[in-house]
Amino acid sequence: EVQLVESGGGLEQAGGSLRLSCAASGFTFDDYVIGWFRQAPGKEREGVSCISSSHGSTYYADSVKGRFTISSDNAKNTVYLQMNNLKPEDTAVYYCASRKGRVITLAPMDYDYWGQGTQVTVSS
Predict the structure, then answer these.
(1) Nearest to residue 70, comparing CAs of 104, 120, 119?
(2) Which distant-in-sequence residues (6+ apart) come within 8 Å of 29 by Cβ?
């Protein structure tokens, strides 16, 4: 059974940092792409970043480029999202998700398995 569990969310001041973790079980990262998504109240779910560990490919939404960094620890089957210089508009529930294959994409519909989400709140 594929399971994804996010952790690391919380309350942070604008300009601060958080690191989110996505622990995966039931599969290995070799044949999957892992993505981070977020959804704020009243808004559509949007892609933040994704990684294909086997090919070393990453991609970032323009809104987070230069501030967020995605990485993976394949031995631990865990993907991280380091979030620096947080802004109030980063406030959302953050989800990790997986899709089979190695082509990177930030389209939510392309992902099959989802975690439960972790809340990130950035105060001004």
Answers:
(1) 104
(2) 53, 54, 72, 74, 77, 79
Closest residue by Cα to residue 91 from 56, 57, 53, 118: 118
DSSP-derived 3-state class of residue 76: helix
CB within 8 Å of 32: residues ≥ 6 apart: 98, 99, 100, 101, 102
Cβ-in-10-Å burial (0-12, 13-18, 19+) of 117 comes to: middle
35: number of Cβ within 10 Å: 29
Taking the C-alpha atoms of residue 120 and residue 20, their distance in angstroms, rounded to an integer, is: 9
Q: Encode pLDDT of 63-93 as tens digits.
A: 999 999 999 998 898 999 999 999 999 999 9
Token output for 108 = 């939510």
CA distances (Å), 110 to each of 55, 75, 89, in order?
18, 25, 25
Rounded Cα distance, 106 and 64, in Å: 13
User: pLDDT, tens digit, for every residue of 95-120?
Assistant: 999 998 878 899 999 999 999 999 99
